[in-house]
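Hi R.,

Here's the input for the thymidine-5'-diphosphate complex you asked about:
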Amino acid sequence: MPKSATRFVCSDCGNVTSKWSGRCDGCGAWNTIAEEVPLSSGPGKTALGSAKGRAVPLGALSAKEAPPPRRASGMGELDRVLGCGLVDASAILVGGDPGIGKSTLLLQGAASFARAGAKAVYISGEEATSQVRMRAQRLGLTDAPVQLGAETNLRNILTTLEAESPDLAVIDSIQTLWSDTVDSAPGSVTQVRACAHELTTFAKRSGTSVVLVGHVTKEGQIAGPRVVEHMVDTVLYFEGERGHQFRLLRSVKNRFGPADEIGVFEMTGAGLAEVSNPSALFLSGREEPAPGSVVFAGIEGTRPVLCEFQALVAPSALANARRTVVGWDTGRLSMILAVLEARCGIPFTGLDVYLNVAGGMRITEPAADLAVAAALLSAREDVALPADMAVFGEISLSGALRPVAQTENRLKEAEKLGFTKALAPEGSKTGAAPGITVRKMPDLVTVVGDVFGAG
Ligand code: TYD
Ligand code: MG
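And here is the predicted structure with thymidine-5'-diphosphate in place:
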């Protein structure tokens, strides 16, 4: 059998070369090439070689299978994002910027699961046990029966987990682990992949749920969580703005529950506190009706969340007017500005536009189009919408407004928070919230004329 040759693979485009180089020949990206040692293959060159495989039992789709048992932590926001609790033998990746609060979240989570009766192990590769203990003390978790260890060698971690066979193992973080079977530095693509693969395999084999922490990084030096997303069952991202105390735990992939679900937390001096009514939090501190401020009734995952869009429009001193967006898509803003200009005759040339979602929230729903347009118009025309008006609707390129999903849930949440008015597309179903007067608009031109008296 020929000696298995080392090859170099680009982590972005998958281009394979025999020599390392700083720049990928395939896609031109820098610092993306990593060494890859092919797995030693078994007898026979192909899978159907001389050695016989084992026939895998096949079954009908209709075969009865019990739903996987779930373990709740009692931390409602965490359980919700996991899809009503943790499934045994699952592998979960929790990604996020360094310093956003992943270790805090998982220490609190592990403590909650342990208090609920699960056997929990927390292995830190980044901090010494004394540091983790100090944090636990500050968070008031010292009474929780969590077993703590500090280790970065994968072989030692797996041996420990085999011996303990816990229900839950938290590994903080995947970038610090190293496997002695792979000849590259901890944090490299090859190491991160190999370690994640061994740990997910361990989870399936042993029934232990494994939670991997992964730092999101922009440089190619340390491999980000993206390279292991496909190996795990659930991918959660912990996000938030550094300056804000709100933190969102967002599920972007979940084999055992709804994706796009969010859990809302607040970072306090005593750790992360759950926020069970995010709308009230996102709207707190809202001033009197102000031009440029519009409340959007959105849906995040399975629940309605209200938040505030703020726009500022000012004459520009630059040749190319500024478009600055926080919490919303820049391309989508350009589209709405173009529709306002082309269909409604409201130009923004020579005007700087700033758009911000209050509270550090990030909105991706097209249903926020109308709220964005209303905030822009309100800022430009210096007309404030009533403070108790909620807005939602999708805008098409023709300037028409399109009804959006879950209209009634949006209105019910707004009603619960004391709103009495709403601006929505014509054709929206509005029966569920009798306390709200809904102004139904067929298109953006009508909104410009009837609501803002412009155009
Ligand atoms: P950490 O969990 O260490 O972040 P990560 O593991 O994602 O790198 O959290 C670090 C930040 O959280 C740090 O800047 C301090 C802040 N923090 C609090 O504000 N309150 C607390 O009780 C704790 C433990 C941390
Ligand atoms: Mg950490």
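One thing worth noting: The chain has a mean pLDDT of 89.

Cheers,
M.
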